[in-house]
Amino acid sequence: MINLLDLSPLKFVNYCQELGEMPFRAQQLQKWIHKFGVSDFNKMTDISISLRKKLKNSGYIKAPHIISDQISFDGTRKWIFNVKKNIIETVFIPEKNRNTLCISTQVGCAINCIFCSTGKQGFIRNLTIGEIIGQLWVIEFKLRKEKNIKIDFIKNRQITNIVMMGMGEPLLNYKSTIGALKLILSDHAYGLSRRHVILSTTGIIPMIDKLSKECPVELAISLHASNDNLRNQLIPISKKYPLKELILACHRYITYSPRHMITFEYCMLHGINDEDIHALELISLMKKNKILMSCKINLIPFNYFPNSNLICSKSSRIKIFAKILMNSGLFVTIRKIRGNDINAACGQLSGKILNHI
């Protein structure tokens, strides 16, 4: 028996062929499951009775189970899911013109960035396609139900943007991440624009190059430092992927990026990476032949978590840092803190409700 949430668009076609069915049946199945949120084969009314019988005998549809639902004072919402006796967290960030879902791709994380709570939990395992896309599947249709929106009213989408910035390093779970991305982008499933999907990575260079060819979405690099010595302290895996090589990979990716630009995320840490010299080094890093890369620098105030021994840069220091960057011609934003009262802000996801239930 196979969980149909674990099927990428191509695997849907292969599955239908194994059942002796034509490829168009794969599109029908995707629509029923991912556009309409249907998990009962009997309700898939334009599918023949004989095929429904085959589906019941060979497959099922089962998503991760919600065990906690928290809402922040600012409207941010965090769900904790049980995935085969492990814990993952997913965050919903509503705004005036868009609703963003922050999705996890691993249970824990092996990168162990010093400013991120997820890494302190250690790495447990990769998520399957079904466990990744299941977060979107559950929440999209839960929100529709809460707002009394007809389940088959596909135009009134609740989730408009996806960021793969939750627990884990997406490019170290490449196969499942790509499978989920292709469902998110498929017109027969969620049909989101590539411009509305962002994958965040610490910089796994071979996989960045592979992503550009197989499924180019918006790319965000967890940079957080302006030189190799500092970055090696903050992000241990960066020893394997030096900044010079990472920046070259980013230049290669820009050609494929939907907006032809890269986002660089920079967590502001008091006394560590927030001095003027770091801003000037960052400017130099973004230049190639004296021309600035097409990019955005997203400055992220550090969000506290227990035993981190780190302090967020002062607001005044962040503004000075931003001004230095902007004066060079770089496009700079300062991320608004959302959901930190429920530990849903950037760097706070940890899956603390026991790793085993």
TrEMBL record:
Cofactors: [4Fe-4S] cluster
Under the heading SUPFAM superfamilies, the entry gives:
Radical SAM enzymes
Domain (Radical SAM core) ranges: 95-341
> Which of UniProt's keywords are assigned here?
4Fe-4S, Cytoplasm, Disulfide bond, Iron, Iron-sulfur, Metal-binding, Methyltransferase, rRNA processing, S-adenosyl-L-methionine, Transferase, tRNA processing
The main location is cytoplasm
Binding-site positions, S-adenosyl-L-methionine: G168, E169, S200, S222, L223, H224, N303
Cofactor detail note: Binds 1 [4Fe-4S] cluster. The cluster is coordinated with 3 cysteines and an exchangeable S-adenosyl-L-methionine.
Query: InterPro entries from the xrefs?
Result: Aldolase_TIM, Methyltransferase_A, RlmN_N, RNA_MTrfase_RlmN, rRNA_lsu_MTrfase_RlmN/Cfr, rSAM, rSAM_sf
The molecular function GO annotations come to: 4 iron, 4 sulfur cluster binding; metal ion binding; rRNA (adenine(2503)-C2-)-methyltransferase activity; rRNA binding; tRNA (adenine(37)-C2)-methyltransferase activity; tRNA binding
**What does the miscellaneous comment read?**
Reaction proceeds by a ping-pong mechanism involving intermediate methylation of a conserved cysteine residue.
Family listed:
Belongs to the radical SAM superfamily. RlmN family.
> What exactly does this protein do?
Specifically methylates position 2 of adenine 2503 in 23S rRNA and position 2 of adenine 37 in tRNAs. m2A2503 modification seems to play a crucial role in the proofreading step occurring at the peptidyl transferase center and thus would serve to optimize ribosomal fidelity.
Under which name does UniProt file this protein? Answer: Dual-specificity RNA methyltransferase RlmN
Source organism phylogeny: Bacteria, Pseudomonadati, Pseudomonadota, Betaproteobacteria, Candidatus Profftella
Q: Which gene encodes it?
A: rlmN
